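Purpose: get a first structural picture of the assembly so the mutagenesis plan has something to point at.
Setup: two entries, given in the order below. No constraints added.
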Amino acid sequence: MPVPDFSPGEVLTAAAMDSIGLWLVKTQTVGTGVSSVTVTGAFSANYDRYRITIDNIAASTGGDLRFQLGSANTQYYGIYNYQVSTGTTQVFYQNNTANAYIGGLATSGSQGEQSITFDISQPNKATRTAWTGQAFGNNYYFNFGYQLADTTQYTAFTIFPGSGTLTGGTIRVYGYRN
Amino acid sequence: MSKPLIQIDDLIREMTDEEYAQYLEQIANAPQLPEGLDETPSNS
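Result (structure tokens, whole complex):
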């Protein structure tokens, strides 16, 4: 089915539902004053590629948000850069770090300005995992691309701030139909 | 002194001693923050 051809009142078949290209796997609301959020059951053999969105998290202090697959705390390789409206541009090359940067955090006074979107490839396969994405937060625009250079099959991930705590906001995980 | 809170799905609890030790180690060994990222720039 190249495009959905649903009509009002139609009974949806399994085949029709299975052809949906992007499926919401999990939604996780962030609590109050937490130093990290782990999302379990995010990745499985059902999908090779996932989209992760993170919106409206408020931080106790402005700063960066970090990402870790499972309990892996080494072998993150990537490039992370940001631009500021004042014209500043910075590029960071990260080799064999303990986690990955995935964007900036707004403080509680500007909670609505924080948004992160990235795609992650093959986190549940016995191969290296890579991801690329963009983010906006704290008046900074970010681009990033990373790989985790191990072959562990991951089902969970954790986000946490460089310092302080997180409050509110929503994490969503979508699977792309293979 | 209470330990930091962690969230696993909908469960929020204090870190265990082991988790707290890992947390402190992680902070100590974290890559350096991008310069200026903790500041909110002006829009001018």
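The CA atoms of residues 14 and 176 of chain A lie 17 Å apart.
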